[in-house]
Amino acid sequence: MRPTGKLHLGHYHGVLKNWVKLQHEFECFFFVADWHALTTQYDDPSNIEQSVSDMVIDWLAAGVNPGSSTMFIQSQVPEHAELHLLLSMITPLGWLERIPTYKDQQEKLREKDLATYGFLGYPLLQSADILMYRAGRVPVGADQVSHVEITREIARRFNHLYGREPGFEDQAEAAIVKMGKKNAKLYRNLKKRYQEEGDLDSLETARALLKEQQNISLGDRERLYGFIEGGGKVILPEPQPLLTPESKLSGLDGQKMSKSYNNYIGLREVPDTVAVKIRTMQTDPARVRRIDPGEPEKCPVYALHKVYSDADTRSWVEIGCRSAGIGCLDCKKPLIDSIVEEQRPLRERAAEYEGNPDLIRSILEEGRERARDAARDTLDEVRSAMGLSY
Ligand code: SF4
User: Fold this and answer.
1) Of the candidates 299, 375, 389, 379, the residue with the CA atom closest to the CA atom of residue 74
2) pLDDT tops 80 at residue 226
3) pLDDT tens, 160-192?
4) Distance between CA 47 and CA 104 in Å, rounded?
5) Tens digit of pLDDT for each residue in 103-135?
6) 43 and 98 share one domain
7) Buried b vs exposed e over 240-272: b needs ≥16 C-beta within 10 Å?
8) Are strands 137-140 and 240-243 parallel, antiparallel or unpaired?
9) Most distant CA pair in the chain: distance in Å?
10) Which residues, listed in sequence order, are joined to residue 137 by a DSSP beta bridge?
11) Is 142 inside a domain boundary?
């Protein structure tokens, strides 16, 4: 995630709650993409440092757990830059120019000069970020799928250019024998399911099974990854997008919650400000007076009730609004309570970190070390595949 400063409830519902869930289902790497921030903010990097710290506190407040996932800052793992450089050697320019967000973003951010090498190359930097950890899945919204797709193409091109190994199938078979009869049979079944039915879960299970095999070396394991995916040696596995539904959370004015629309509630905003923001929200314009009936579907307050309130409260709003039985302030009250209640544990967790920069530093250092270990393994293989292991 790019460091854009303090996060809001749209980020919480759209991304962070999902991360918190994923960290218990997968081995996760979450990083602050500070180099990515520079691709568009190179002319004024002055607030990046503060944004990094605010964002990390927000992650921790939301429940991203450094014990269950690896959290780090991109620029502190310089291996990302080297992999980006090496991948740039094999990436055709046209692939980058064709990515839909390239032209879109240039249009949107017209006030900035984005005719830069860094901006054109940022999807490739993202590919390096993903391939570095040999990620199986990348949680993205629909608008980012093309970035995962180009990552897959780059991995395929890399493996095709550098992954050829004579006698590869024989070596893979020899490695399978080492797994013992029962595991070998299970592994072959999983391979079949992946290759014939494209069943991604079987790929994951096969990988987990391989990880458990104490007697299989890293090299053999890689050979088997390649074997199951049906190609030559897979140095950089192709990741799959893990589609996450876009946040449904609307902002104070009914549009999507966003900093640029200034219609947001901060993730750890204090209760008094939350109350003021909700109390001053626009409602259905038809309700000029208390006695005028309204239509909840035309009201941004009701859009928030849909996320925050149970069925009974929603029905109380619908009936009360349409019959003018309740006033807008009555309607807003339970919403304020629910939001403040949702934020309570987040604010409490954040308080532990806010006054303790050393703790945050040590979390990020630990994450950096774990990330670098994984990154070095990948880079060793990449360098060697590209003939640079001298
Ligand atoms: Fe909106 Fe509630 Fe007022 Fe109806 S009663 S207009 S839903 S704030």
Assistant:
1) 375
2) no
3) 788 766 677 778 888 888 888 999 999 999 988
4) 25
5) 888 888 888 888 899 999 999 999 999 999 999
6) yes
7) ebbebeebebbbbebebbebeeebbbbbbbeee
8) parallel
9) 82
10) 240
11) yes
User: What are residue 29's phi and psi, to 5 degrees?
Assistant: -120, 120
Domain count, the chain: 3
Question: What are the pLDDT digits (tens) for 300-349?
Answer: 999 999 999 999 999 999 999 999 999 999 999 999 999 999 999 999 99
| Structural domain for 304, as ranges | 271-354
Say yes or no: 85 and 42 in one domain. yes
pLDDT digits (tens, 9 = 90+) for 291-310: 999 999 999 999 999 999 99
> For residue 369, which of 14, 29, 87, 20 has the smallest C-alpha distance?
29
Residues 180 and 204 in one domain: yes
Q: How far apart are CA 59 and CA 360, in angstroms?
A: 11
Paired tokens of 194: 């992946």
CA of 264 to the centre of ligand 1 (A): 19
Predicted TM-score (pTM) of the model is 0.81
Look up the ipTM and state it: 0.99
Which mutation among 299, 309, 335 tests ligand 1's pocket best, with the greatest number of atoms within 8 A of CB? 299
pLDDT confidence of residue 230: 60
Q: Is residue 127 one of the residues assigned to a domain?
A: yes
Q: How far is the CA of 268 from the centre of ligand 1 (A)?
A: 25
Measured between alpha carbons, how far is 245 from 21 in angstroms, rounded to an integer? 14
* Pocket of ligand 1 from Cβ distances under 6 Å: 283-284, 287, 294, 296, 299, 301-302, 317, 321, 326, 328, 331-332
The answer to whether the CB of 155 falls within 8 A of the CB of 167 is no
Question: Is residue 28 within a helix (H) or strand (E), and if so which, with residue range?
Answer: strand 28-32
Nearest CA to ligand 1 atom 8: 328
